[in-house]
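Handoff note, outgoing to incoming analyst
You'll be picking up this chain. Sequence as last confirmed:
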Amino acid sequence: MDKKLVIPGEFLSDDIKLADEGTYVEDGKVFSSVFGIASLKNHVKVVPLSGKYIPRQGDIIIGIITEVSFSNWIVDIRSPYEGLLHISEFPRRIDNSEMSKYLKVGDSIMTLVKDVDQSMKVELTLNDQRLRQIKDGRVIEVTPSKVPRLIGRSGSMIAMLKNETNCNIFIGQNGRVWLTGKDKNLDLAVRTIQKIENESHIPGLTDRIVKFLKEEKGTQVKQPEKKKAKKEQPNKQEPVEEIARDEIVSKETTQEDTNMEETVMEEEPEKLEENKSGGILDELLDK
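Most recent structure output, in case you need it:
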């Protein structure tokens, strides 16, 4: 295997002449100096993960076509690994010679990670009613590890952002965010998302975002309500449920993010009533 996941201090090679970035030499041996993906072909190099997306089966992400081969579209998924979208995973039957007519280099797609094998071959698909080519709006990027903070607990942060900016927002688990709406509203949404990403590590994030939106709009901004007991939830909880259904949360290793992820992923779109109206993803796919 030419590539593998390594941790700091992990042995990589006996040939110190092969040592490259992300490694160090000690006692005539090469070791990894960072947590990342080691490339062992021709030389020994470790690409730090630090925010890189690691694909997992079932993730819904936003990819960008980088190459059209004989039977596959090669897709940039913001990962050390490329995504492969086979012609058979396109939602309609097409000939190999027509591939560029439907998806060309530079096109963005909302796609599903169908499979990831042991060699990290990432297979993608568009054969799902939730998936499509992205033809309008804007696509921006945030650090994948910051996605849970952008979502907020039980979807509260993204719900407030959508309500206050009047934008439709889809968050891919690889940190790409698709926004649609009026240009003025999109500008505000983008600035707010960037602020959330830059200040996600500082306590009191929600209060700062409320203040920021209030100053930008010159109006009163309603703070997200705390989650109440289940018996009191039927009417007031509906917006949060819709967000939890439509947004896809990046999988994290910290306890806080894991707890939040479990809350959101328990209500995946396919496990809820598919005909229920009002969801952002339904809106995007219907238009």
